[in-house]
Amino acid sequence: QVNLVESGGGLVQAGESLRLSCAASVYPYSVAAMGWYRQTLGKQRELVASITRDGIKNYTDSVKGRFTISRDNAKNTVYLQMTSLKPEDTAVYYCNAEVVYYGGSRGDSWGQGTQVTVSS
Q1: Per residue in 4-24, pLDDT tens?
Q2: What letter would DSSP give residue 114?
Q3: How many C-beta atoms surround the C-beta of residue 26 within 10 A?
Q4: C-alpha separations of 15 from 18, 21, 82, 85, 109 in Å
Q5: Are β-strands 114-119 and 10-13 bridged in parallel, bridged antiparallel, or unpaired?
Q6: Beta-ladder partners of 35
């Protein structure tokens, strides 16, 4: 009943751009905040960007000015436009959705991950 499908990863050169998409299918539930996380081998998964249902955004310092998160509430889809990519951005990127269940309880749901590789 809850499924997040990511797309848009790939291999690019430094300075180029990628756009990640994540469509959340959560019927009969609803989605509150959404976000993107990334993880490299030996590292903790870290928040890259998040966005509330009302469009309030938060970014980790290393991507400010380069990445833009957005969402389409009607489609339960979140996007991450990544520009001026750096090799340090190389990671598996995971989509996250805060799912609201019956009675108002909440839980996190995760996408399968999509690889972003930036070569120098």
Answers
A1: 999 999 999 999 999 999 999
A2: E
A3: 17
A4: 10, 20, 10, 5, 31
A5: parallel
A6: 50, 96
62's torsion region: left (phi>0), alpha (psi -120 to 50) or beta?
alpha
The encoded tokens of residue 58 equal: 């938060």
Copy the structure tokens of residue 104.
């108002």
Cα angle at 114 between 40 and 100, to 5 degrees?
Answer: 100
At 14 the three-state DSSP class reads coil
For residue range 61-90, list pLDDT tens digits in order.
999 999 999 999 999 999 999 999 999 999
One-character DSSP codes across 54-105: T--EEE-GGGTTTEEEEEEGGGTEEEEEE-S--GGG-EEEEEEEEEE-GGG-
